[in-house]
Recover the amino acids of this structure.
């Protein structure tokens, strides 16, 4: 089965469409949360995910947008975008977000937004945090988002090694436990503004990251026209 793995779409419809086109053909779409927040098209993104039959989990921005998580720890721009989103999403978008679990599994994969032990909040950004989370897994593979950085942590005996995937360079599951972050579709933070997504072939174990150019200026213009914070508009151009 060919699976498109998407995370942190953040209401960025042109980025989502570009990544879906680049990863096609696929048999399933798994999304890792933060479907909404920051970006200008939350309803359109949820509609598109419904069209492709995406399954997955909620992120902290999704939970905040439906009033199930406080924004006290969000920075000012993130909070403003959550409030903008909460006021505008349709009842059907709200219902779709409310139905997303914190954690789910598909075959030999656990899907969470943050981490297995703290699904909505914890960032897995170091080998030590990855190692602490491996014991909370009952599947061999775990797919996470939240950091917006494409990265792999792989158990190697007592060690956990960190692998930075490169665009188009294959990575293969070899039986060792892996925590894999596909990067962000709608707001990359690794200095590369191109949208990011992953295709997994579950039969062969092959994984490929794809970086995809999308019309950033079009999204920025839409964000400005609806009054989203300027810093959020600007960061899309430099991938941070
Ligand atoms: Zn996010």
């Amino acid at each position: 089965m060919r699976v498109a793995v998407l995370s942190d779409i953040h209401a960025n419809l042109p980025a989502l469409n570009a990544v879906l086109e680049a990863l096609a053909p696929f048999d399933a779409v798994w999304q890792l949360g933060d479907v909404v927040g920051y970006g200008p098209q939350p309803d359109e993104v949820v509609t598109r995910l419904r069209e492709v039959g995406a399954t997955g989990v909620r992120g902290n921005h999704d939970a905040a947008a439906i009033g199930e998580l406080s924004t006290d720890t969000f920075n000012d721009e993130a909070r403003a975008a959550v409030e903008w989103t909460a006021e505008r999403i349709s009842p059907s978008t709200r219902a779709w977000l409310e139905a997303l679990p914190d954690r789910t599994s598909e075959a030999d994969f656990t899907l969470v937004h943050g981490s297995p032990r703290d699904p909505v909040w914890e960032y897995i950004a170091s080998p030590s945090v990855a190692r602490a989370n491996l014991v909370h897994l009952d599947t061999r593979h775990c797919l996470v988002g939240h950091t917006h950085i494409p990265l792999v942590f792989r158990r190697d005996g007592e060690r956990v090694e960190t692998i930075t995937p490169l665009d188009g360079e294959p990575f293969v599951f070899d039986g060792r436990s892996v925590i894999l972050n596909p990067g962000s579709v709608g707001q990359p933070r690794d200095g590369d503004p191109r949208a990011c997504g992953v295709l997994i072939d579950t039969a062969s174990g092959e994984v490929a990251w794809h970086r995809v150019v999308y019309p950033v200026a079009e999204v920025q213009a839409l964000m400005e026209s609806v009054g989203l914070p300027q810093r959020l508009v600007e960061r899309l151009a430099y991938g941070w």
